[in-house]
TrEMBL record:
Keywords: Kinase, Transferase. This is Phosphatidylinositol kinase. The keyword Transferase applies. Transmembrane segments: none annotated. It comes from Pseudoalteromonas byunsanensis. The lineage of its organism: Bacteria, Pseudomonadati, Pseudomonadota, Gammaproteobacteria, Alteromonadales. Gene3D superfamilies: 1.10.1070.20. One of its GO terms (molecular function) is protein serine/threonine kinase activity. GO terms for cellular component: cytosol. Belongs to the HipA Ser/Thr kinase family. Signal peptide: none annotated. Residues 18-118 form the HipA N-terminal subdomain domain. Residues 162-372 form the HipA-like C-terminal domain.
Length: 411
């Protein structure tokens, strides 16, 4: 448990850091207090639905963010990053079960996703001074994920702090096109998504996600810039530009639906009707209608891993909110969607009127037009997937499943 307050800072798009407030904890819970000067220049909250924009001491809910407020919980990594962090704590004679969320934030310091950083930092690893070739580092991460401990722990920890249960790397692409694993390098910040035999789609996952990103972009949905990295032996990893980073070395404040609405992400807890309403309130009608399109894309492409951390919102330096680019979209056939449609986890058909009303659309007909446009774009999937070398049986399975979803919606 931290004995002294943890200072929260926000990096603006220009790279300037401003004091936001302080976090403290006792043996029972944690608390946050905004800095008065911050509220003078940023009168709206970092988390509009669950943090008051005043200088009162605000207690955090016990769940679902490890006993801290959701906007700070978003700074913590998920399965992969937490696994690496626990390895570091054990290596330094700390029992991970006794490490508090605030201590984890202190350890992360300024290596979090989004614009928030935490001081003073808790130093447990030496700062790497040399870059590791990203293919070598990625292969080490996959081996670690599959059960073989790597000697490159400090490099994996420095690059592996992004969200998600699966291994990823935060790296930088330099102006000469080369990659570096050093986090203070100037260039384009990327997330590289690795593959594994342990994934449902095994090493085909990045190729399928590449196709899905292309389809989303073709239907007019904003996605991060993306590409494939040839990892050798016929395997490819997906790289995506980080939308929380700016060219000037600054950051964009970001909050997930999980952090915004206190909606757990490891089990179904969210509904598109509520999410569309929250988007309309915070971002306006136009953004809520963009979310409808993403909702229908997820349904028609069988992306059922649409949990509350796979929707995020970005705030400009002036605290104007928009949807983040669309991300983590890949074929994931569960029995039901993680985010329901008006209480139904299988189909949005009965919720179309509600979704239209919450997003300011005149009727469900407008949503059906979106659905038809999306389905038409999905007809390109088989050709593109075949060109990338995906297995024929997998291509056939995905395409058949997409056709079934569209027929269920229109039948």
């Amino acid at each position: 448990m931290l004995k002294s307050p943890l200072t929260v800072k926000r990096t603006l798009s220009t790279g300037e850091k401003v004091l936001v407030g302080k976090l403290v904890e006792n043996s029972q819970q944690s608390f946050f207090q905004f800095d008065e000067a911050y509220l003078g220049t940023h009168p709206t909250s970092l988390a509009p639905f669950n943090l008051k924009a005043d200088t009162s001491l605000q207690a955090a809910p016990r769940e679902p963010h490890y006993g801290i407020h959701g906007v700070f919980g978003d700074s913590l990594p998920d399965g992969w990053g937490l696994y690496l962090m626990d390895r570091v704590f054990r290596q330094n004679a700390h029992n991970p079960k006794e490490v508090t969320a605030l201590e984890r934030l202190a350890y992360l310091g300024d290596r979090c996703m989004g614009a928030l950083s935490y001081e003073p930092e808790l130093d447990l690893l030496d700062e790497p001074t040399e870059s590791i070739d990203i293919i070598t580092l990625g292969q080490a991460a996959i081996e670690e994920f599959e059960g073989t401990e790597s000697a490159l722990l400090e490099h994996l920890m420095r690059t592996g702090g992004s969200g998600g249960a699966r291994p990823k790397m935060n790296v930088t692409r330099l102006s000469n096109g080369e990659y570096t694993s050093l986090d203070n390098a100037l260039g384009t910040k990327l997330i590289v998504k690795l593959t594994s035999e342990k994934f449902d789609l095994k090493h085909s996952e990045s190729l399928v996600e590449y196709c899905y990103m292309q389809m989303a972009r073709d239907v007019g949905i904003e996605v991060p810039e993306f590409n494939l990295i040839d990892a050798g032996n016929g395997r490819f990893w997906l790289e995506q530009e980080r939308f929380d980073c700016t060219e000037q070395g600054g950051r964009i404040h970001m909050i997930s639906a999980c952090g915004l609405l206190d909606a757990p992400f490891r089990e179904p807890s969210l509904d598109y009707v509520d999410l569309v309403k929250a988007t309309r309130i915070m971002c306006g009608v136009t953004e809520s209608q963009k979310l409808i399109k993403r909702c229908m894309f997820n349904y028609l492409t069988v992306n059922q891993d649409d949990h509350s951390k796979n929707f995020s919102f970005l705030a400009s330096d002036a605290d104007n909110w928009t949807l983040s680019p669309f991300y983590d979209i890949v074929y994931s056939p569960y029995k039901e969607h993680m985010t329901a449609f008006g209480g139904n986890g299988r189909t949005p058909k009965s919720a179309l009127d509600q979704l239209a009303a919450q997003s300011g659309l005149s009727s469900k007909k407008a949503i059906m037009i979106m659905a038809e446009e999306i389905f038409e774009i999905t007809r390109s999937f088989s050709h593109q997937a075949k060109h990338l070398g995906l297995p024929h049986t997998l291509i056939k399975e995905i395409d058949k499943h997409m056709v079934e979803k569209f027929n269920t919606l229109t039948g």
